[in-house]
Amino acid sequence: MPPQGSRRPDEATYRALQTAIETALDADAVAHPNPGAPILHRLNRSEYANAIHDLLALDVDVTSLLPADDAAFGFDNISDALGVSPSLQERYLSAATKIAAMAVGDPDVGAGSDTFRIRQDLSQDQHIDGLPLGTIGGTSVRYTFPLDGDYVLQVKLYRTNLNIMRGLQYPHDVEFAIDGRRVYLATIGGPRISRRSSTNRPTRATPWTRGCACACR
To answer: I want to staple 9 with a disulfide (CB 3.0 to 4.6 A). Which of 13, 38, 116, 153 is the partner?
Structure first.
């Protein structure tokens, strides 16, 4: 275009035609929005965890329930890369069974225990994010209790390779809280306890070594 032997329009005519076409297309898109048909795809682990949180108000560790997602072009939510194999379907069904038991409670669940360790290289002489202001050190754990009942919480201090407890030179107030409410307060450390620990002499059980018990609601 234009046909052979015909004069070409000037630049202003080209610009006017271009603007008219763009305006007409934009107006039609606004009047008849059509984003296209959504493509259904399998939820990846992050999307699955968010869906469980929104539906059941549960924060689940999906990394322990589902395998890692395949990535494409640097993303793990590309529908073409989120295939569903028979073995993966079984993992999702198994995860759904465990999450359902957490949501409604399983009366047949047996007694068990979980251990949460603080990294030995984590500084305990400064405030830890998420803990009450004014506190120093400590840890915060998010835990879903499977049933209503009595639970025993035990706290142990790290020991050196010589079986000496760390941080006992001076007395410290240690607070235990559940759902932000204090349930136990104890003072540990001091010269007497520090001397006993450093000489590796056995000491009688004190409240902070026995732990505390609380009821789950």
So the answer is: 13
Q: Can you tell me the distance from the alpha carbon of 21 to that of 46, in angstroms, rounded to the nearest whole number?
A: 42
- Cα separation of 14 and 180, whole Å? 69
**Residues forming a β-bridge with 177:** 182
Backbone angles phi, psi at 175, to 5 degrees: -115, 140
**CA Rg value for the chain:** 31
Instruction: Please say whether the beta carbons of 43 and 68 come within 8 A.
Output: no
Q: What is the pTM of this model?
A: 0.51
Quote the strand ranges of 17-170, DSSP E: 149-153
Q: What is the DSSP letter of 39?
A: P
